[in-house]
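Hi Prof. W.,

I finally got the Gamma-glutamylcyclotransferase AIG2-like domain-containing protein prediction working! I wasn't sure whether to trim anything, so I left the full sequence exactly as given:
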Amino acid sequence: MTLPFFVYGTLRPGEVNHDLFLRGRTRSAEPGRLVGAVLYDGPGYPYAVEEPGDGEVSGDLVTAPPEGYAELLAELDRLEEYVPGDPRSLYERVERKVVRETDGAAVRAWVYVAAPAVAARLRARGRAIAGGDWRARG
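And this is what came out:
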């Protein structure tokens, strides 16, 4: 399934991993929000943790062209240390609805969220980023 990616940390335009992994390999990037999640500060990168409620994470919906999609998906899975079914994964890639800022439409997208063990640790002793925007962290 070729869905856009919702990126909220180092893969956002202007950030280091965007330049390394996405620059020149995408058709568009537009602002969006993931509702029902809290953003936590990690060691140099953030984690979105799914939480029922009003929490939001700010980021960008990035669309890749079909001809390079499979390769890009595999590279992003490696970057995010996501292996389906592996309990040691730091992130899980999940399909979620993301609100596109330009028109308020809900768009299905791939989102890398904190894997269950990581999410439990962050809820217990992590530092939430107020406002859900990693670029605005203090």
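The first strand starts at residue 5 and ends at 7. Does that look reasonable to you?

Thanks,
D.
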